[in-house]
Structure formats: structure tokens, C-alpha cells
Amino acid sequence: MAKAAARSANSEPPISNRERPEQPGRYEASKEELLEFYRQMLLIRRFEEKAGQLYGLGLIGGFCHLYIGQEAVAVGLQSGLEIGKDSVITGYRDHGHMLAYGIDPNVIMAELTGRQAGISKGKGGSMHMFSTEHRFYGGHGIVGAQVSLGAGLAFKHKYEDDGGVCLAYFGDGAANQGQVYEAFNMASLWKLPIIFVIENNQYAMGTSVNRSSAEDQLYKRGESFRIPGLQIDGMDVLACRGALEEALKWVRGGKGPIILEMKTYRYRGHSMSDPAKYRSRDEVQSMRDNSDPIERVKRELEAMGVSEAELKPIDQEIRKIVSESADFAENAPEPEPGELYTDVLVETY
Ligand SMILES: Cc1ncc(C[n+]2csc(CCOP(=O)(O)OP(=O)(O)O)c2C)c(N)n1
Ligand SMILES: [Mg+2]
């Protein structure tokens, strides 16, 4: 009986005996690559700071969730994808992921200020940005929904045999949502090419992962579905990229889905309206002082012989790009009233 119970229903060996991905090492970046990672992370940091300012000035309406602190995750992971072949989908904290994919900061900022030139014609705002050209499928406000949609994108990759992989991001809070596990089941059963990325920034809106999760080691959440998981330092861009390489090997090798739990931290509130009563200032300051992903890359660059003076032009270039994006977003016209009637799905079901 015990023997029979140990056998898998689909005749594959029990999970304990199965092949597992290796714990990935840090990616060995060239100086040029590391400089590019630095540039991209700094762009996200400065862009988000500016978005925070514009929000404070009343130029951005609705919700706005900043990515400050988490930059290494999007940059490290997406630097290893093939734009236009692989697909990406995420939740509402999406500006950083778009920037990491090289999407024009002007059209992202213009979307934030609700202008016609915005990437969703000013009608999506912070949480609903898409670039089908990049196969970037949002930007979703419903917690966890992007996981099921991501499974759908992965199904399409498999169905069309296009060699692509879907990278589906979600948070530690979303990891407790039911539909996530329905998606896990199907993705594993059909061996879909999908990397489930849990951005564990330690908090949902105001609840810490330990308070809300019976199993807070989120990389283990796929065990019941035969999806292996890896826990990664999400404050280290090279660890993130190393993880992506291992995950791609697994998924492109036809072995089905994999989970990457990225241990990261958000410095700012959940959204721009967050009373921040659930954690101390000291905790945030300590993360900023000891684990900042950008400072870390700076130190690595220094070790490679790149001086502070060599980084200055990059900092200046980024400030210019961000300030131009804000000017563009402030001065671009709002959508015409007629736009209320376009891009609206009206059908009878
Ligand atoms: C289905 C659903 N339930 C609740 C909410 C409200 N809500 C928005 S964000 C959030 C917390 C999600 O936290 P997490 O998944 O950790 O993502 P993070 O904000 O940390 O990136 C909640 C509960 C929602 N948008 N959708
Ligand atoms: Mg979270």
C-alpha cells in the first residue's frame, strides 16, 4: 500500500526522486554588461522617484505603485529574455518591468499622467500598460490574475511552437490566491513554458509574508504540482540573471514550469497612499543601507576598476532622460473626448 501511494498518478517518479534544477550561481557579467545593468536600474530608480513627485503634484491620478528597491529583479531577469519572442506579464507595479524591457520612458510617463501619447493612449494609467510589440502583456490590477493569463500566454507559446517562454511575475500576497494554484496545475500538467516569478518584497498591502502565509518559503509552493522552485537573492542583479539562465535551461528544455522566488524589498509604501504603520522606519533604512541593489553594483564596478567619475556621465544621462520624460508627460495633450468610445469591447455573450 505504501508503495502504491508513493507511485505517481501520471506514472512519473515521485517528486523526491525527480531531476531538479541546480541552485544557480551568480551571472558572470562583463564590465559592459554590468554597466548596462547599473544604467537600467538607475533609470528605474530615478524614473520612479520622479513619478512619486508628479503624483505629489497632482499630475498623476488614480493608483501608483512604485518599484523602488526591487530594480535588480526586473533588470536581472529580463536582460536574459529575447524581446519579441518571450512574453512578460506582471501586476500593477509595472513601470520598472517596462523600463527594463527598453520601452520609451516618455510613453510610460505620459501614460502615468493620462495623456494621448501614453502607451495605452492615456486610458490605462499606472496599472495598465502594454506593449504587444515587445510581447509585454501588462500591467494588471487584479491580484493574481496575471498568473492565469501568463499560463495562457505560455500555452500559446507551446501551441504555436514558437520557442518562447512566458515570464509571469506576481507578489508574495498574490501567492496566496486560489487561481495561482489552478494555473500551476495546468501549467505543470501540460508542461507549459512558463517561469513563475514570485517577487517576495516581504509585504502585501500592509501584511507581512510571515503573518499571512502558512508556508513562507514561497519557492516551495509548487511542490504539490511537481513544479520545482528556487529561492534567489533579489537584491543582487547578478544572482537574478544567474537564476534566469538556470530557469531558461529548464523551461526551454521542455521540462515544464519553474518557480523563482526573488527575495526583495520595496522601500516605498505599497502605493502612494500607504500609512506605513506595519513596519518601522529603521527596518526600511537598514535595507537601504545594507542591501541596496544599485549600491551593490556600484561596488562591483569599482572592483572591476570603474571609478566614480566614470559613472557620473551615466547618472547625468539618466537624470536628463527622466526629466525629459516628465516634461513630455506634462505637456502632451490629453485624449480627445471621442477616445471614450474607442478600444472598448462591446459584444453580446
Ligand atoms: C483580487 C484582488 N484582491 C485584492 C486586491 C487589493 N490589493 C491590491 S494589491 C494587494 C496586495 C498584493 O501584494 P503582493 O502580491 O505582495 O504584491 P506587491 O504589492 O507587494 O507588489 C491587494 C490585496 C486586488 N487588487 N485584487
Ligand atoms: Mg509583496
Q: Could you characterize the architecture of this molecule?
A:
Heterodimer of an alpha and a beta chain. InterPro entries: DH_E1, PDH_E1_Alpha_Subunit, Pyrv_DH_E1_asu_subgrp-y, THDP-binding. One of its GO terms (biological process) is pyruvate decarboxylation to acetyl-CoA. It comes from Sphingomonas baiyangensis. It catalyses: N(6)-[(R)-lipoyl]-L-lysyl-[protein] + pyruvate + H(+) = N(6)-[(R)-S(8)-acetyldihydrolipoyl]-L-lysyl-[protein] + CO2. This protein is of the alpha/beta class and 349 residues long. It has a single domain, classed as Thiamin diphosphate (ThDP)-binding fold, Pyr/PP domains (Rossmann fold). 42% of the residues lie in helices and 8% in strands. The protein has twelve helices and five strands. It has helices at residues 2-6, 31-56, 71-78, 95-100, 105-112, 145-160, 178-189, 209-212, 237-252, 281-291, 293-303, 308-331; strands at residues 87-89, 166-171, 194-200, 229-233, 258-263. The chain has a five-stranded parallel sheet, with helices on both faces. Helix 2 (31-56) packs antiparallel against helix 11 (293-303) and helix 6 packs parallel to helix 7. The radius of gyration is 21 Å and the shape is globular. The termini are far apart. The mean pLDDT is 95. Magnesium ion binds next to loops.
